[in-house]
Design brief:
Largest sheet: 2 strands, antiparallel
Oligomer: single chain
Strand content: under 5%
Order of helices and strands: HHEEHHHH
Shape: elongated
Helix content: over 70%
Radius of gyration: 30 Å
Number of strands: 2
Distance between the termini: 132 Å
């Protein structure tokens, strides 16, 4: 009958497979958390910078298929996406499912995903700000054209000079 593995072999096994306590994984979790806080800061900036009636795009990569949400709902959706991505990839990075993965993948996965989500949120805020800045100018232009079209001088043609002489 065979006994359990000797203690040094068990320690080597735990050292290899329990890497979630490793400092690099903890650093990856800290960097991912910092990027999540940057998403909160971007949303706080957008709350102040965007006008009240602004709409924020929520897209899946193709601008033609964007869903334009009101400012509060759009910013909340981006923060929800960030929190969900952080929770899912932090659990994956620190959990036992990824214990056999390469250490480098476990270290860069969470910060990489959070960086992409932060860039997408920042892009949405930039597009929303540009769209909100263009809307008042577009609204003033038709109003100016309508006011010139309504003036009596513009509508009534001048009488020909030849008819008065004759």
């Amino acid at each position: 009958m065979r006994e359990f593995a000797p203690l040094p072999a068990r320690r080597r096994y735990l050292a290899k497979h329990e890497a979630s306590r490793d400092g690099t994984v903890v650093a990856a979790l800290a960097i991912g958390g910092a990027l999540l806080l940057a998403m909160v800061a971007a949303a706080a900036y957008a709350i102040r910078a965007l006008p009240a009636g602004a709409r924020v795009p929520l897209n899946a990569g193709v601008p033609e298929y964007s869903v334009w949400l009101p400012k509060p709902a759009g910013l909340a959706a981006w923060l929800g996406i960030g929190v969900a991505a952080f929770a899912a990839f932090a659990a994956l990075t620190a959990g036992g499912l990824a214990a056999n993965w390469a250490q480098s993948l476990r270290v860069v996965l969470l910060p990489g995903v959070m960086l992409v989500v932060l860039a997408a949120e920042a892009g949405a805020v930039i597009v929303a700000r540009r769209t909100a800045a263009e809307q008042p100018a577009a609204a003033e232009q038709p109003a100016a054209e309508a006011s010139t079209a309504e003036s009596p001088a513009a509508e009534a043609p001048a009488a020909p000079a030849a008819s008065e002489n004759g």
